[in-house]
Specification:
By secondary structure, the chain is mainly α. The chain is built from 14 helices and 6 strands. The protein folds into 3 domains: 7-81, Arc Repressor Mutant, subunit A; 89-262; 318-395, no CATH class. The chain has helices at residues 7-16, 18-31, 36-46, 51-56, 71-81, 89-108, 114-151, 158-180, 188-205, 209-262, 285-294, 318-328, 334-345, 351-358; strands at residues 60-63, 66-69, 367-370, 376-380, 385-389, 391-394. A hairpin with a 2-residue loop joins strand 1 and strand 2.
């Protein structure tokens, strides 16, 4: 004797033990079945002894030694959790076959048995609604999968990201887009368009009132389905396909860059990767320095005479000169400024004074800019004629003179 449980009892059972059902649902999603050991482990983990109720309320059924959800409960939990299995295009395309066959029989039996005609119209409406639901579920799952892949939630490497993106495009997105393309002669959307035209005619000029109303309902179902399918098609073409193509492109670029970094000398990089270094001093400074010191390597005879009067010793006051330099900013030629500064203090300009003030070029808050390589300034000291580069000195926040 089969005892049927009260509907409220079953619904209350699902509400009370939903966490257990969710874990069992995850097991079936991963393995296709709920293994006997998995069922026992889940029930022990939650400390719930509800195996008999699961079987009695026909939530699960036994498959050999294992178990599985009955289809109606599986789809209920799938819908509640919004965790749909992505359907292959072939699985969705089966709706096209059933819709085509029902439509053929409706046209063939349009003037035959009234009751059979009404049942076929109702069955066609059901198939169209199931097709629309399947497309929506697929779009939701594909969009979630793609966003997870974009965010790299699973921390997979770039090569695997490329493979997954290519897999989704080749086996799911492009075929599904073809199914939804109303301009494609073999697409389901194109078939629904033909059915819509037929239903529109029959809802207006069929003799039987009941059949006219059935065609009226079918027509409105088709109108709604057309809007839903159009919306899903836009998601595919405007959001999903560009997003996953971007994943594939970005991953390919990053993968190539990583391979280049592993062996950067294997190929010659393009010009935009080559750096160019500019310097505030001449690239010939090494040779000029050698030349400068070589002139003192051979010493001439010299007669040293004691100065008749003792000269005051010059002391380099860095803070003072830096303050004067900042007040003069922007300085178009640093060594001209040094020359003028020293002359304003003393007629004697020595190499020591000149080189001491040169250390101001290395202050962090000053910006040094060189002109062309051939742009130089001639400075004359008491003992030497120097040819030094022309350098511009500025500081952040000091506007340049126009």
């Amino acid at each position: 004797m089969i005892v049927k449980a009260e509907p409220k009892t079953i619904l209350h059972f699902i509400y009370t033990y939903f966490e257990v059902l969710r874990d069992l649902f995850d097991l079936q999603q991963d393995n296709g079945l709920i293994r006997k050991e998995g069922l026992n482990d889940t029930l022990n983990q939650h400390k719930k002894d509800i195996k008999l109720q699961l079987l009695e309320y026909k939530v699960i059924r036994q498959v050999n030694d294992d178990y599985e959800f009955r289809d109606v409960y599986y789809k209920l939990i799938e819908f509640v959790l919004f965790e749909f299995r992505p359907l292959l295009p072939e699985e969705i395309d089966k709706f096209g076959n059933s819709i085509t066959e029902l439509f053929r029989k409706i046209k063939k039996g349009i003037d035959q048995d009234r009751n059979i005609l009404l049942e076929r119209i109702k069955a066609l409406s059901v198939q169209i609604k199931e097709f629309s639901d399947a497309v929506e579920k697929n779009s939701i799952r594909l969009l979630n999968e793609t966003r997870e892949l974009k965010g790299n939630v699973s921390r997979i490497d770039y090569k695997e990201k490329i493979q997954k993106a290519s897999f989704w495009i080749e086996y799911y997105i492009i075929p599904l887009n073809t199914i939804l393309d109303v301009n494609h002669s073999q697409s389901i959307s194109n078939k629904l368009l033909n059915i819509s035209e037929f239903a529109n005619q029959r809802r207006l000029n069929y003799d039987d009132e009941g059949v006219r109303q059935a065609f009226e309902k079918l027509y409105h179902v088709l109108i709604q389905t057309n809007d839903d399918v159009l919306r899903q098609s836009k998601i595919l073409t405007n959001e999903l396909l560009p997003l996953i193509e971007r994943i594939r492109t970005e991953s390919m670029i990053l993968t190539g860059w990583i391979e280049f970094l592993k062996n950067p000398y294997k190929v010659t990089p393009p010009k935009f990767l080559k750096t160019d270094k500019d310097s505030p001093y001449s690239n010939k400074i090494y040779l000029n320095t050698i030349e400068y010191f070589e002139q003192f390597s051979v010493a001439d005879e010299a007669i040293i005479e004691a100065d008749s009067e003792e000269m005051e010793r010059w002391i380099f006051k860095k803070a003072k000169y830096k303050e004067q330099l900042i007040k003069s900013l922007p300085v178009q030629s640093f060594f001209d400024w040094v020359n003028k500064q020293l002359k304003s203090e003393d007629k004697h300009i020595t190499n020591e004074k000149l080189f001491a003030l040169t250390c101001l070029l290395f202050e962090d808050d000053l910006e040094i800019t060189s002109y062309s390589k051939d742009s130089t300034v001639k400075i004359k000291t008491d003992t030497t004629n120097l040819n030094v580069p022309k350098l511009k000195v500025t500081q952040n926040g000091i506007p340049e003179e126009s």
